[in-house]
């Protein structure tokens, strides 16, 4: 471990976290993608299962880190850094999320119930947007309350934030060029059968919940 900070990507999925992961990788961070297993362990309070992952790496993205920033600050103190990736608008985030779910395995979408409380965003648009906005505000408020605003960065790739903002925050030399935009919807490919199946399920789900 040669980096001075532990960096937590605390933005929700489809907010720019994949781009953040690529940027951190280019900066030389040892990154762990913490997904389902760590998410469920954290939610259940099984910190003995979570902390070894945090101690072993320098940066964290994925499903779990947005719910581990309090633990991270308590454990690592001044060495902890949180990066909240956001979209240009909540609607942009929602549309990106829907496109992502259309291309994901039908069974994979069951995880949405555990994360968001609903199976699909379609028919629950207001609830998903409220979740996104509430999460972002909770993170902002937490670091403000802790007097740790200097350990928190909110960044939006779509509005022009890039290497300078990230590198200055992490006390790294500013990288040249543009940031690598990763995991765009177009990169997921066209999967007509899966998309059609998910759209049919979303349509039926929307009819049930409206």
Describe the fold and architecture.
It is globular and about 50 Å long. It has 9 helices and 5 strands. 31% of the residues are buried. It has helices spanning 17-26, 36-43, 47-56, 69-76, 90-103, 111-116, 125-145, 163-169, 192-209; strands spanning 6-9, 31-33, 59-61, 80-85, 152-155. The chain has a single domain, classed as P-loop containing nucleotide triphosphate hydrolases (Rossmann fold, 3-Layer(aba) Sandwich). The N and C termini lie far apart (51 Å). Strands 2-3-1-4-5 form a 5-stranded parallel sheet, with helices on both faces. The chain is an alpha/beta fold.
Helix and strand topology:
Elements: E1 6-9, H1 17-26, E2 31-33, H2 36-43, H3 47-56, E3 59-61, H4 69-76, E4 80-85, H5 90-103, H6 111-116, H7 125-145, E5 152-155, H8 163-169, H9 192-209
Helix pairs in contact: 5-7
Features:
210 residues; alpha/beta; Rossmann fold; 5-stranded parallel β-sheet; 10% strand; globular; Sulfotransferase family protein
Quick take:
This protein has 210 residues and is an alpha/beta fold.
The span between the termini is: 51 Å
Helix content: 40-55%
For CATH, the homologous superfamily is named as P-loop containing nucleotide triphosphate hydrolases
Mean pLDDT: 90
How much of the sequence is in beta strands?
A: 5-15%
Could you name the ranges where pLDDT drops below 50 across 5 or more consecutive residues?
none
Please outline the major beta sheet: 5 strands, parallel
Give the overall silhouette: globular
Number of alpha- plus pi-helical segments = 9
Q: What order do the strands of the largest sheet run in, or round the barrel if closed? A: 2-3-1-4-5
Which CATH class?
Answer: Alpha Beta
- CATH topology type: Rossmann fold
Structural class: alpha/beta
The total beta strand count reads: 5
Can you write the helix and strand succession as a string? EHEHHEHEHHHEHH
Count of discrete domains:
1
For the CA atoms, what is the radius of gyration? 17 Å
CATH architecture annotation: 3-Layer(aba) Sandwich
């Amino acid at each position: 471990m040669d980096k001075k900070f532990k960096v937590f990507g605390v933005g929700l999925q489809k907010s720019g976290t994949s781009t953040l992961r690529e940027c951190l990788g280019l900066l030389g961070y040892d990154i762990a993608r913490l997904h389902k297993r760590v998410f469920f362990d954290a939610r259940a309070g099984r910190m003995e299962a979570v902390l070894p992952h945090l101690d072993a790496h320098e940066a964290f993205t994925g499903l779990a880190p947005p719910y581990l920033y309090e633990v991270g600050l308590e454990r690592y103190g001044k060495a902890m850094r949180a990066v909240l990736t956001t979209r240009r608008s909540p609607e942009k985030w929602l549309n990106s999320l829907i496109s992502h779910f259309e291309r994901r395995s039908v069974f994979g979408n069951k995880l949405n119930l555990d994360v968001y409380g609903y199976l699909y965003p379609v028919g629950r648009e207001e609830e998903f947007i409220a979740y996104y906005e509430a999460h972002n505000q909770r993170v902002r408020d937490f670091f403000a309350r802790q007097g740790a605003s200097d350990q928190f960065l909110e960044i939006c790739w779509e509005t022009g934030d890039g290497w300078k903002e990230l590198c200055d925050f992490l006390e790294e030399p500013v990288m040249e060029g543009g940031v690598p935009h990763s995991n765009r919807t177009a990169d997921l490919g066209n999967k007509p059968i899966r998309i059609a199946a998910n759209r049919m399920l979303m349509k039926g789900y929307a009819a049930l919940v409206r």
